[in-house]
Input
Amino acid sequence: MNSHTAAIQRSLPPDDTPHERPTTTSNDSRSDRHLGQAELDEFGARLDELRRRTLADIGEADARYIRRIRLAMRACVVAGRALLFFGWFPPTWILGSLLLGLGKILENMELGHNVMHGQYDWMNDPELSGKTYEWDIDGPSDFWRHTHNHVHHAYTNVMGKDDDIGYGLARLFPDQRWKPHYRWQMWWVSIQALLFQYSVAVQDLRLDKYFKGKPLPDFKQKLRAFWHKVARQSAKDYLFFPLLALAAGASFGAVLAGNALANVIRNLWTFTVIFCGHFTEKAAVFPPSILENESRGHWYLRQLQGSSNMTGGPLFHILTGNLSHQIEHHLFPDLPARRYAALSVEVRKLCEEYGQTYNTGTMAGQFATVVRRLWVYRKSNRELGLPASA
Output
């Protein structure tokens, strides 16, 4: 069992936890049926069995798949960087930037994110170890393993527990306490999207605590790790490769600009996929009280109700890191993501059987509801005629 699996198992309550409690959320756009105790136990047991069956089937096909993804990522990066050495010639500069951006997307989404969940630890490949993998963005991987794997996945969409809700910049739910800076959040979030890797990178620093005069005990150590990773990434993309181009008689500026554009492409894509997976019209948030005596079935139900899927073809799913199946990812975060498409068929049937909303739609449709949330909840609940948030 890898460290992430162990963390998920610790957050997943035992079967005998008392659970006579509400199983629906306050999101009016959902139509979830209340599940009684027996149904909830059965719902959790059937998802457990689905996970066990999938684990038993994992093998060489999964290993071959992730190796091919790694190879495709490397090919895109090498080809993209090579084309940028042709300078400002539009066809090669544009194609080079796009290929490099594609390589960074593959590395970030289908490779890095999923590897760091421990999905391929069973292969015993040092390059695919969830504990040691270091990804190609400015945020240290150890930061992500903590904030994402051990916090976000344990406390998915629980107010005051899950820092991914709005990433400290945006108000997307009426349950969030309104602050004056939310009024201009369309601007802040646009900047966040362009620089999304930095938004992810600083999350584990808990700057909100620092500015309140209550920094984390290891804040200085984390800050050093942050600046070390930023310096290394910036030197690689904005110094080493541009200087290498200059030494080869190519354009320093063309390579620098191509690297910058590739990073922006990756940032915008990652931002869109993540926000569409968590903050759509039918995504629910929960009060901290939901964690009291939370049973295994309730944990599964919370993951389901707080997540959103997107429809698309095989290539689309690969480019999202299969986070287009965000529901299945939150139910089974340590299973190889290539399995989510098949799992989604059975999960959807279970949702129909148990009267639960299976939140899915096109990327354009889901993102439109995210933008609507950002626009609406930039205003206070008082202005919207809603009950005051906690």
Notes: The longest helix spans residues 219-247. The radius of gyration is 21 Å. DSSP finds 16 helices and two strands in the chain. The first strand starts at residue 309 and ends at 310.
